[in-house]
What we know:
The chain is built from 18 helices and 17 strands. It has about 450 residues and is an alpha/beta fold.
Amino acid sequence: xxxxxxxxxxxxxxxxxxxxxxxxxxxxxxxxxxxxxxxxxxxxxxxxxxxxxxxxxxxxxxxxxxxxxxxxxxxxxxxxxxxxxxxxxxxxxxxxxxxxxxxxxxxxxxxxxxxxxxxxxxxxxxxxxxxxxxxxxxxxxxxxxxxxxxxxxxxxxxxxxxxxxxxxxxxxxxxxxxxxxxxxxxxxxxxxxxxxxxxxxxxxxxxxxxxxxxxxxxxxxxxxxxxxxxxxxxxxxxxxxxxxxxxxxxxxxxxxxxxxxxxxxxxxxxxxxxxxxxxxxxxxxxxxxxxxxxxxxxxxxxxxxxxxxxxxxxxxxxxxxxxxxxxxxxxxxxxxxxxxxxxxxxxxxxxxxxxxxxxxxxxxxxxxxxxxxxxxxxxxxxxxxxxxxxxxxxxxxxxxxxxxxxxxxxxxxxxxxxxxxxxxxxxxxxxxxxxxxxxxxxxxxxxxxxx
Length: 451
């Protein structure tokens, strides 16, 4: 099998745990996705997109990838379907979760990741796995991943949700597994618990058509118009972009799903209704939930993209996509925004600083659209992201650290066998209440996993 980057590394071991040197071979990587949504378009959020891009790029470079994900996922990797909810329902008593002191959703997720880790451990014992990369956002994967030592990576894509904190409270006392953050801002957030590498997210920059003509020329063709897009919800601050445009008299195209109907009805709809009364002089055009191609079209004609998120986003995919289209950004200094948007590619102001934001409308015209595209190619690409992960993978293998807590493959098999198994209803669930009780107070993350 051909691949883009030749590697030389120490991979699996024989039964006596002696290293077996493997040269010019692809890595064998198990990727664990989260279980809420398929890893497929249309994406439920940024996490689904990132997981798919990582897997497809790794396969494109010739590596062997197993993706443990929702059964409806689409990937260039080898898909290993997760336990479906239908199978879960047919093999577990209807009230079984009550006897274990947890919600049915918590029980389902718990067993999904137990199944996955058992399968990966068994494959690893047969010498079939080099690296495990966990994107699941679930504590079971993080805790059971201790079996792999430094060959097990967890990437944090979100703030510290309860499921993550549950594992972090234990792992802060010591772990040989490795962790990555998708920005320096997020690295600081999690560093209270574990040390982290930073590997920035990437997008398929080449799939976006950029408009890099001078802004003055762009305005003469399409007039001065700005673009806001994303989930319409309080934390994204859609109404703030609208208010600033009203004060400055700027036209704004708004795109995105009504993620929070109450917020839309109370904060956004009244501004749209008021604007419609202006007739030909109206400023706003709400175009609904649009495709990636439509986003590209609007960005390529926009004077700038407006970023009014009021929460600390760990990354900010809309920022990278805007730069990929050659479109500068006027945005708030929240989360990782200032790490992605440089002074040569946009204007970042303090959160909700109305005066500074409005001043940005006149200053943004001096930003080079070509510089925006170049920033995206150098900093925001899928290849840059995957190269960062591959460097960590290879370093972990080269160190040849033994798996944490295992002296031989038989021990790994015993751990796999000890993980919960779902039997037919006649035999109920095999396992003890005590093993499940410690997660009974956690809440499932059921939100769309966007960044």
